[in-house]
Specification:
heterodimer; A: 359 residues; mainly alpha; two-stranded antiparallel sheet; B: 293 residues
């Protein structure tokens, strides 16, 4: 059975008659505008500093990385466990640009990080022209280990400082110093929002359709004239760009000071789990999955501390968290292979025609 | 010259240890097409269970028997709770399910037995022995003899028994095997049990070498390039792949490492494997697949 029957072809609003088009598009745009307005003004008003800097900022950054991986894995069908390596490349490139060329604006440094990661991604994707599936997973694993080693071994990347720790310069945007959690949140929200919009357009463009064709069956895609290797390489490059920017944000805004251990293999798996739980091939799923990934451990330790109040230590708890997490992943793969995003969609369909049922 | 030979042989012997992990992996891939990332977790689970039993005063052989029984129970549970509900899903889904499984196994092993490092003494002294003027580790020699015996046993099992035949039939064509009455769930249970038992042996040897601890799960990462080189579906390939990786890793460490500043053993086998993949996309011994639209 091919992946095609499992993952949905995301249909755009552009199909069907014009009245239908408007009927779908207007509420969607309104919903998106409402969501954005809420994220910009309401959320920083309601959330305290802890929520902003310890939950919302990493949530948005992980969502961005998941978005990148989703473009590659969920849309173009190329499984990768090198996400953390691309994130590290983005962070270190952005750091070197920002530290060595102090006049370069912050966003340009982030973009440079993304571009460097994209370059590495395209390079990592080269073998995909010849090998597929699990063999490709091992290629991305090779990139992961090589990058970890290179950033640890060559001190030049961390500004020749002996500890290997990198402290990022102060964040400035057009003359303003960004030093409050709220400013950090807005910065991340701006970058993630803009890139999400681009990702949405990629998904609905001809390129996005090509990704789907390659994912569903690349031999068939080649037969109908899609340049398979070029499409795969583009998928790798675009995905890695997203991961690179996410890595730069993670290092600059969330961590502030970092070393290569921030991007070990487990981070790659974390992002992979986000898109499994959130929904492969769904952009919204990247956000839902990231929220789940961050909130679930907090929820679990809260529940454990209220129910068992102190009889359980941190180590044991983290073991149980691991078990529950593993079980959840298997549960999702069995019961809801399209992730939380599809649960949400189904719910929305029910709500929209309630109390009637859709045919 | 004799230094080169010693390095080479040391590498080959260490490579056998990688093969041990890779064999468990190949067994599962061959019979069910599952890329089992949880093999490392199985190794840890088996070794930790065994060591904890021994530390609680269970005699050596009894501990082995109990651990083997536990591994079989794990296999039955995996078949019932993971493989059966996911039947007919794409291979990638099953791979991700084994990622979840490895979390469960690691968490369970440590929740049951704690996260301390345990020493494991199999009664084999790691003393250098001299053979034809070359100094080799006795432990490595015994480990490679074990691996060799295991491969011979598995080959015998696959070629001479009824179970081995049905296993090969499933590997060849699951649908055809089903239609002649091979019971797939049973095969899966047996293969996962076998992989668990191979994991136990690998866990004992690895544990004796480097202590039974969480880092045992990382041997699965060492086994990846071995699998790539040998092909996912060949037990002989896993052994040859292990030898190549072990030897290349040691030689590179000694002769290339100093040039780039050392520490290359984590990624060098991967680069070797990817290079080989580009030349032969199905590994040295893997089956070539023909794609049809």
């Amino acid at each position: 059975m091919s992946v095609a029957r499992v993952l949905p072809i995301t249909t755009s609003a552009g199909q069907g008659a014009a009245w239908q088009h408007r009927a779908v598009l207007v509420p969607r745009l309104a919903a998106a505008a409402l969501l954005l307005a809420g994220a910009i003004w309401a959320v920083p008003g309601l959330a305290d500093d802890y929520w902003l800097s310890a939950i919302l900022v990493p949530f948005l950054i992980l969502s961005l990385a998941a978005l990148g991986l989703n473009l590659l894995t969920g849309f173009a069908g190329q499984l990768s466990v090198g996400t953390a390596a691309f994130m590290a490349t983005g962070a270190y490139t952005a750091y070197n640009v920002a530290a060595r060329l102090p006049d370069v604006p912050l966003l340009v440094a982030f973009a440079a990080g993304g571009l460097a990661a994209a370059l590495l991604g395209a390079l990592a994707g080269l073998p995909s022209g010849r090998i597929k599936g699990f063999y490709l997973v091992v290629c991305t694993l090779a990139v992961q280990f090589f990058v970890e080693w290179a950033f640890t071994r060559f001190r030049w990347f961390s500004g020749d400082n002996s500890s290997g720790q990198v402290a990022v310069p102060a964040l400035r945007l057009g003359g303003h110093l960004l030093d409050t959690p709220r400013a950090h949140y807005w910065l991340v929200l701006g970058v993630v929002g803009a890139l999400t919009w681009v990702a949405r357009n990629i998904a609905h463009s001809e390129l996005g359709r090509r990704f789907l064709a390659v994912r569903d069956m690349d031999t068939a895609a080649a037969v109908i004239g899609i340049p398979v290797l070029r499409t795969k390489l583009l998928a790798f490059a675009i995905s890695s760009f997203y991961c690179g920017v996410a890595g730069a944000l993670w290092g600059f805004v969330y961590l502030g000071a970092f070393d290569p251990r921030a991007w070990e293999l487990s981070r790659s798996f974390q992002v992979l789990f986000i898109i499994i739980i959130g929904g492969m091939g769904s952009l919204a799923g990247s956000f839902v999955g990231a929220a789940f990934m961050l909130l679930f451990p907090i929820l679990m330790s809260r529940v454990a501390s209220t129910l068992l109040s102190g009889t359980i230590d941190q180590g044991t708890l983290s073991n149980y968290q691991k078990i529950v997490f593993g079980a959840l992943i298997i549960f999702f793969l069995i019961k809801e292979p399209l992730g939380l995003a599809s649960v949400g969609r189904a719910l929305w369909r029910r709500v929209r025609v309630w109390p009637l049922r859709q045919w | 010259m004799s230094y080169l030979l010693e390095t080479l042989l040391g590498g080959l012997l260490a490579g056998i240890m990688y093969s041990l992990v890779a064999i468990g992996f190949v067994l599962i891939y061959k019979s069910s097409g599952v890329f089992n990332f949880a093999q490392g977790a199985l190794v840890l689970f088996a070794a930790l269970t065994f060591v904890s039993l021994v530390e609680r005063g269970v005699p050596f052989l009894a501990a082995i028997a109990v651990t083997a029984a536990v591994m079989i129970i794990v296999a039955v549970l995996v078949e019932r709770l993971v493989l059966r509900p996911l039947v007919n899903r794409p291979p990638v889904t099953l791979f991700m399910a084994t990622l979840g499984l490895s979390y469960i196994l690691e968490g369970t092993a440590q929740a049951l037995w704690g996260a301390d490092v345990h020493g494991l003494d199999l009664g084999i002294d790691d003393v250098p022995v001299s053979i034809a003027g070359l100094r080799l580790s006795r432990f490595d020699l015994i480990a490679s003899a074990t691996a060799g015996g295991l491969v011979a046993l598995l080959a015998l099992l696959a070629n001479r028994t009824r179970m081995g035949r049905s296993l090969r039939a499933v590997a060849d064509d699951p649908l055809a095997a089903l239609s002649v009455g091979v019971r797939l769930p049973r095969i899966w249970r047996r293969v996962w049990s076998l992989a668990g038992l191979v994991g136990l042996i690998a866990g004992l040897l690895w544990g004796a070498r480097s202590g039974v601890q969480f880092s045992l799960t990382l041997v699965v990462l060492k086994a990846m390039p071995v699998l790539i080189i040998g092909g996912f579906d060949s037990i002989g390939g896993a052994v040859v792949g292990g030898l190549i990786v072990g030897a290349a890793e040691k030689l590179a460490e000694v002769y290339v490492g100093p040039i780039v500043g050392g520490g290359i053993e984590n990624w060098f086998p991967y680069v070797l494997a990817v290079g080989l993949l580009l030349a032969r996309p199905a590994g040295l011994f893997g089956d070539r697949t023909v794609e049809r639209v």
